[in-house]
Amino acid sequence: MRPSVQIKGIREGLLVTLGEGYWPDVQTALLEEIAQKADFFKGARLILDVENHILNAATLGKLRDLLSDHHLSLWAVLSHSPTTQQTAQTLGLATRIHQPRPEEAAPALPSEFEGSEALLLRRTLRSGSRVEHSGHVTVIGDVNPGAEIIAGGDVVVWGRLRGLVHAGADGDPEAVVCALDLSPTQLRIAGQIAIAPAPRSQPRPEMARLRDGQVVAEPWSLPGQE
């Protein structure tokens, strides 16, 4: 039986849980899953939950190199094994998730209205930029490929959205993503992930939201202008 590979989108990236089995077979199953879904995994940051597997530095280092060959970044390794945890820490990998990250993060802003905390950025986010905020995020400018936005609420881009965006990162299924040109490399809402759509010759304002458990894009317009 082929070892199981389960994938879930979370705040920090893609959480990939690897089932039991002979480790070489488990590693092969993971790499086959990545190869079969290359567009989905493209440029992703991975958190691997290896459960009870006991991995030494050579084994985990080899896996990191193989993932790098697929243009994937291994960020964290979760494990029930103290040996594997120590190995991951030695290689500079995180062993826990849901930790606050400092890169361009902003604290929640006090407000008398629930859900109104928002971060406004008047600039273009270039490759390598990462914005993480517990509330809504609005960008007046473009979000270039290689840039990331992680928001607890909605994400609104008054420009071209071509990077990675995760709205409702704390699990809010009502969150939406709006952009004048909605062409992200990867789009997530709560725990659902959508593969980037094909580029359009004439972009139009669109809103992405969850409908029946799937991420769908629809025209973004003011009420009465549909």
Q: Would you tell me the overall average pLDDT?
A: 83
Radius of gyration equals: 19 Å
CATH secondary-structure class of the largest domain: Mainly Beta
Share of helical residues:
10-25%
Using the coordinates shown, work out and report the CATH topology of the largest domain.
Pectate Lyase C-like
CATH 2nd-level architecture of the largest domain: 3 Solenoid
What count of domains describes the coordinates?
2
Structural overview:
This protein has four helices and 15 strands. The chain is of the alpha/beta class. The chain has two domains: about 5-90, Transcription Regulator spoIIAA; about 120-220, Pectate Lyase C-like. The strands form three sheets. The protein has a six-stranded mixed β-sheet, with no helix packed on it. A hairpin with a 2-residue loop joins strand 1 (about 5-10) and strand 2. The longest helix is centred in the N-terminal third of the chain and has 14 residues, at about 25-35. It starts with a strand and ends in a 7-residue tail after the last strand. Residues about 100-115 have low confidence and may be disordered.
